[in-house]
Every structure is written in C-alpha cells, then in structure tokens.
C-alpha cells in the first residue's frame, strides 16, 4: 500500500512543560495536531492568548507590506527568477531570533514613505497625461484660459466634438439658432476643439442644442495661461516627476538589496510564532497537566520521540492504531521513481486512508502517454535537460522540484518514443546523420493506422486495469459477488471481443454465447431463478443484464479517446517538419540573410512546437487518467497530512547559522 501507515499520538505532560513542548513539536515538524474533545471533568481547552495573536497579526501585516514593497524592487541574479521566486537561506537559530526591532521599524516607515510618494506620483502622472491629451487640440488658440469667459453680450462655449460628427453638429446648431458662430481651433485624437460664440438672447437655445449632441465642454479651472504654454508646463512637470520617481526607486532598490531577504524571513518567523500560539487551542489541560492528540507517520515515530527528549520525563508519548471512524490524514509513500507522479494524484485528490493509492497503477501508463504525445527524441532531450536545470540550478520549492522530476521523466519517455519512430527534431531521413538512418519500429506518417491501433490497445489495457483494481477493492471490502458479476464479467467480455477481432471466424459461435453469458451473470439470473425462485425476479434480472451489457457500449468511446495520443504525436511531428521545410526554403536567400532567417525559424519554430506539445502532452495524458482511468475505481476524498511545522514557504532552514553561509541570504 503506497499510503503511509499513520499512528494516533497522545502527548501527556506536566503543565510547566507546555510551552517548550509546543516549540519542540513545531521544530520537529512530524506531527499533525488535532483538536481534542474535552471528555474529562477536570480537563478544559487551553486558552489562546488573543492579545498575543492580535499583536502578531499586526506585526505580520507590517512585515508583509515591507516585504511586498521591497520585492517589487529586488533584483535577482538567477535565471527565470521572474517566474520562480528564490528562497531565503537562514539558520534555525537566526530564524528563531528574528524580531521586528528598531531597525525594522525604521525600514517600515521608509517603505511607507516610498509607497505614499510613488502613489502620489502615479496619481499626478495620470492627471498630467490626461491634461496634456486634453490640451492638445487647443494648442493653436491664442487666448489665455483665464479669458475663456462670457462678455456682456456674448456667451462662450468651449469644448470638443468628434471629427466624424463635426459637420452634422455644426449644421444642427445653425439650424436651431440664428445668432451663433463656431470657431474650429484644432484637432487631436479624432476630436475637434470648438469655441462656440452666441448672443446672450439665444443662450438657452444654444445650450440645449449642444446638450443633445456629442459636444463635450472643456474646462481647465486650475489653469490661466495660453493652452500651448500650459501643455508645455505639464510636459515639463512629467519629466520632473519621472526623475523624482527614478530617485525614489533607486532608494527602494538599495533598501531591497539590503533588507528584502531578512524581511521575507521575518514574515515566515512571525507566522510560525502565530501558529505556535494558536495551536494551544488544540490542547486540553488540567491544573497541573496538559494533553494533546495528533497523527504521525509510523515511519517517523522514533523521530517524534527523539524530538521530545529535551523535556525528558515531563512529557510522555503514547501511540495507537487508528480506529474505525477516525479522520486519518494521508501521506503518500511511493518509491523514488514513482514519487513524481504523486503530483497528478494530488491534483485530483488524495485517497482516503486505508484505500488504494492510484499512483503506482497509472505511473507507467502516464509515462508512455506523455512520450507518445510528444514523440520526438530531440524534443524529449530538450525537455528533460530544461527540467533538470530548473530543478538543480534554481532555488525552487519542493513541489516545483517534484513537478520538474515529472517533466524529466516525460522527456525521457518522449526520447524513447522518438528513437523507436526515428524522430529527431522532425528531420527527414535524408537530413539525419548516417548513423541515425536506421529502420524505425514504426514510421509515424506511413504507419499512422498502426499508431492509432497501438494507442487504442494501450487504452484497452489501461481501462481494463482500472476495472480489475475496482474488482480487487470490492473483494477486499467483502463484495465478492459484485466483483464477479460487475467487474470480472466486463473483463471477460473484453477478452472475448479481442479474440473475435483477432480471429473473426469465432464470431459465429463465441460472441453470441459470450453475450448471453454476460447477460446472465450481470443480471444474476441464475441466482434469481434457483435461489429466489421468482419468475418475475428472473425476468427483471434478464433486463438488468441487458442494461449492464448496454452499459459496455460506453467503454468503446473510452477506448477511442486514446487515439488522441497518436494524433498529438503526429501533430507535433508535422509542425516540426513544417518548420524544417520553411527553414530550408528561407536558407536559399543569398548574402547570409537566408542563413539568419533559417536559424530564427528553427529556434523559434521548434521552441513553439515544444511548448505546445508539452502543454498537450500534460493536459491530455492527465485527462485520460482522471476521466477514463480514475472513473473506474478511484474516489479520492482523503485529507493530506499537514504537520505542525515552521512556515518555510519562502525560506530554507539550515540546522545551524553557519551552514547558511553567514546568515540570511
């Protein structure tokens, strides 16, 4: 069983050892502590210090703000750091001692000042850009903005209209009002600037007419000079604030270089302390003793005992097997070669404790499915090399490392299929070196039907395994009859159909008898006829058997789903071949232009093809597991094992400070 055996843990200790016990359990990171029901009269839940939690939350908020702000200005030297955040390496002792001291308070206020100034600059920049755009059509107007006012006899309307509708709006205005004049000042961004002058006697008519059009009044209440001058002033101000922002960002970059790593570790340390305070709520205690319960993997039992050795006889640890009805967490324990495929199991959901882990059953299939979808030795080698470099050259999280292991295996599978089909970057046989011009096991293009048949055959085996695993689960649960009549009859019928396809001559006698036997078994007709002795029940059993036989039709569509493996592999080959042909045509252009163009096409084209093939291989291979395989037996619903441990999402803890090369880095 690939689900790790778990033990129920009870920790009983002297009241004075509560705090050190919590610290030791958290440092060990091997036990999941769960809430206890208070069943004894002299036990009550340990009170959580709400004031302490509130204080920690405030400190966490401050540290998170500083970390996020500095993170925007942190420069990383490692490749791909834009997509994969680097870890902070720190010794355990230094991590435990991290506090928001006076230096952090000064850093926090510096970050607050930087954030406020950057926000002010962004608001002002937005306003100035809008002002520059609004003033653009008014630049040629030789009238100060402060003078855009009505006179004793003339009303002034300044605004813009769409260029496309200008003639129509002008005509509408003239038709409605006799004493009106329109001066076209300028154009910008497909709008015209107008100064509309009208006699005060027709003021209301002009205003109501303009309101019914796309005329937008222009107003610059804070400006007084000529539009051109004000636009120049706004542009100059934009240059000034850009210089101010550059200076502030330079200061932020310096602070980030000096403090970002430490603040990142501080956030994790404060979260760790908050967890240590809140976990008290899972403990129960009397006047002199405390009790805690939890779960630990059986393989790490001794590790837990050793972790509590510093508190000596003040604490006693006892272990027990899980009881029926216990909500046991699940930890997977597969061999190293299969462990990368646990990524897919976790995507779907872990098995319940005591159930089968599907990972060992689908791992081999997923390996070959992935290889068939890409199907090229060159692409597979590139994928495996890239995944290896990301895993070993970048400081990535354990989950990312496991996913890179999965991609490495996928690259190996692709290379194996590529060697079998003689596919190396989709090059034609004539373009390959002499030692690679061997006869492939299958040539994908001429042998497409063979590839499709192989994919379907692989699907038949894959689905059949799912049915067999479900039969095993039923037998294990005591439902032997259900396993026989539902699952094993299905497998028997698969075998019969396979024999008929291989030897069509047997269809005349083997297939009808087999279908009849399937109806009898699936409907439990003999049981109803000879045990229940009910003719009505027997007839219902025949109907149920026919219905069960009809349900087998769904398996045909399941098997056909696997043709996507050959289709994706062929698509990858054809796209790669197209890129090679395009590069060959472009290479004939003289003066070295063709060579450069051909190299660009090959690099960009094959890179694009690898990425698309990778996405298709991952998505479709995963879909076949989840939809066609898991649906036959797997339910999921397990709860992942979540040990009480320090927060290490963004840090890597070393046993001693010296091992982190001199502190936080």
Would you give an account of this structure?
- With 665 residues, the chain is of the alpha+beta class.
- It has four domains: 1-43 and 283-331, Alpha-Beta Plaits (2-Layer Sandwich), CATH 3.30.70.120; 143-225, Alpha-Beta Plaits, CATH 3.30.70.100; 339-448 and 562-632, no CATH class; 451-560, no CATH class.
- The protein has 20 helices and twelve strands.
- It is extended and about 105 Å long.
- Residues 657-662 have low confidence and may be disordered.
- Given helix and strand content, the structural type is alpha+beta
Round the Cα radius of gyration to an integer and report it.
Answer: 37 Å
Uncertain parts: 657-662
Tally of strands: 12
* Range of strand content: 5-15%
Q: How many alpha or pi helices? A: 20
The 3D shape can be described as extended
On the 0-100 scale, what is the average pLDDT? Answer: 88
Report on the biggest sheet. 6 strands, antiparallel
* Portion in helices: 55-70%
End-to-end CA span? 41 Å
| Total count of domains | 4
Give me a quick take on this structure.
By secondary structure, this protein is of the alpha+beta class.
Secondary-structure blueprint of this entry?
Elements: E1 6-14, H1 18-28, E2 32-34, E3 44-45, H2 50-71, E4 88-91, H3 92-97, H4 102-135, E5 154-162, H5 166-176, E6 180-188, E7 191-199, H6 203-211, E8 216-217, H7 227-278, E9 284-285, E10 289-297, H8 301-307, E11 315-320, H9 342-348, H10 359-374, H11 377-393, H12 398-421, H13 448-476, H14 480-502, H15 510-522, H16 525-532, H17 535-551, H18 553-561, H19 563-586, H20 593-629, E12 651-654
Helix pairs in contact: 2-4, 2-7, 4-7, 5-6, 10-12, 10-19, 10-20, 11-12, 13-14, 13-18, 13-19, 14-15, 15-17, 16-17, 19-20
